[in-house]
Specification:
The protein has helices at 7-17, 32-38, 41-57; strands at residues 22-25, 28-31. The chain is mostly helical and 81 residues long. It has a domain at 21-63. It has a two-stranded antiparallel ribbon with strand order 1-2. Strand 1 (22-25) and strand 2 form a beta hairpin. It is globular and about 45 Å long.
């Protein structure tokens, strides 16, 4: 079983389970779905292409995800035993 999920897989799992994605801006929480619902497909595809290009340019396809503005990295801890 694969330990890591790509961002695409993680978002797909969240969407399938219909879990809300809360974002915080200026101390106010709001659902990401509200933003995404307002963006036309063309802009979503442009954002996706831009992020995909940035990942390739940085050669970061296999790097574990890092929490934004944090020194912590999302890497599973080894199991003792």
């Amino acid at each position: 079983m694969n330990t890591f999920m790509s961002l695409k897989e993680a978002l797909s799992t969240i969407v399938q389970r219909q879990e809300p994605i809360l974002l915080c801006s200026a101390g106010v929480d709001w659902e990401a779905r509200a933003l995404l619902a307002e963006l036309p497909d063309r802009k979503l595809k442009t954002i996706h292409s831009g992020l995909e290009l940035m990942v390739r340019l940085l050669n970061a396809q296999k790097l574990p995800p890092k929490l934004l503005l944090s020194q912590e990295v999302n890497v599973p801890k080894p199991i003792d035993g």
